[in-house]
Amino acid sequence: MRRRTLLATVGGGLAGGIAGCLSSPRRGSGTPNGEDPSTDVTIPAGTWPQIGYDSQHTRHTPDARGPRDDATIAWRSLGDRPVYPPVVDDALYLTEAWTGGTAFTLSAEDGQQQWSNSELPPMRWAPALHDDRLLVITREAGNVVRLHALDVASGDQEWVREHEITASSGEHPPISPTVRDGALYLGSNRGVIRCDAATGDIDWTAPLGPHVVETENGPTWRTDWAKPAVTADRVFTFDMNESYRATREVYAVDRRTGDREWTARLDAGDGWYLKAHAVAGADHVFVSALRPHVSAGLDDSPWSGAERLFALEAASGEVAWDWTLPKKTLSPPAYADGTLYVSEWYPDADTGRLHALDVSDGSNIWTYETDNGAVLSPTVAGDTVYIGQGEELAAVARADGTRRWRLEIGERSGPPVVVGETAYIQTNPGHNYQSRLLAVREP
């Protein structure tokens, strides 16, 4: 095993399902050579260690090439149980979703199972990799939460920690631990916990809100803290269950001490809530707020939800800009070198768009369009953005938004996990569905 040491107006569509470059591509914030000073540079090439790829959730893997010129399905695996998205080094590591208690690994070469550990309590979180350990969070009756470390070569448990370990409800999966520089950050039932990733020992706890809150409709205890986004200096999170407040609050704490640095209070409006997790760039942190359809899509009326994207100054929490999307995103944005890639869905026409935004001011660089369904889950690898569009996988050029290829998957897919020259695709993501895992490579 490898040892891991806009307010911009969107332009009109183009025929054929693609909109090209609406304006010249340009570099956004970041260092002059294009490197992001907050990027975790300790991630070895050829790995995907956690949800979001890195601790900032950028879904940008600069060392991966991905299937660049064409693509075909190299192998298919699973299809008989719900699982969380894989983490990857020389193999793929997965955990069963929600009620299952099995962690297992698949061969990157052909998708065959290599080992399986079914002696764990149920899991509501995806795993993360650190050195030669798979880090897994479990919860069983009595709300007993534990952090487990499994050997990646055998699946055997090396250690388990229970004392002072808590976790948010997991009502909005997939979430998982965040790992950076030898530390593990976990959304707890009150905020954030930092542990030593090698031993599980607690470094600090940051209580950011009560476990039980009083609302006009009575008390609620289901605080649901987002997977922490971690930079070199700060940890960012929010409670996804904060719709009971007049404002929505985003928190930043010092990465080394857990002391609160700032609280941003976003005036999103009644009925809005923050979704998914924060995405952290060089100078900004990005959060999305959703106002859902009042009928939850269970009737035939047009979908009336809306979404807003907020860019906060990472050092202060001040809102630098915000953008109201005409419709809805289905996944967090991806960030790479001063550009934010935001996917969008138009449910009335079942079409989608991918926007490239300059993070300095939210202005539009280019927009890609498709008539094949919702665009979702952008992942940036090298000079390509990989997206799901309807039941297809597509590759889009970062420079101008032109499509390079598209591949029929046949099912709704989750975020592409791109490692080396391969894109791993999970179909039917979610803890209520039986997922399939595909490896997509050049022929």
From TrEMBL:
Residues 56-70 have a biased composition (Basic and acidic residues). Gene3D superfamilies: YVTN repeat-like/Quinoprotein amine dehydrogenase (2.130.10.10). PANTHER family: CELL SURFACE PROTEIN, OUTER MEMBRANE PROTEIN ASSEMBLY FACTOR BAMB. Residues 22-70 are annotated as: Disordered. Residues 74-236, 248-428 form the Pyrrolo-quinoline quinone repeat domain. It comes from Halobaculum roseum. InterPro entries: PQQ_b-propeller_rpt, PQQ_rpt_dom, Quinoprotein_ADH-like_sf, WD40/YVTN_repeat-like_dom_sf. This is PQQ-binding-like beta-propeller repeat protein.
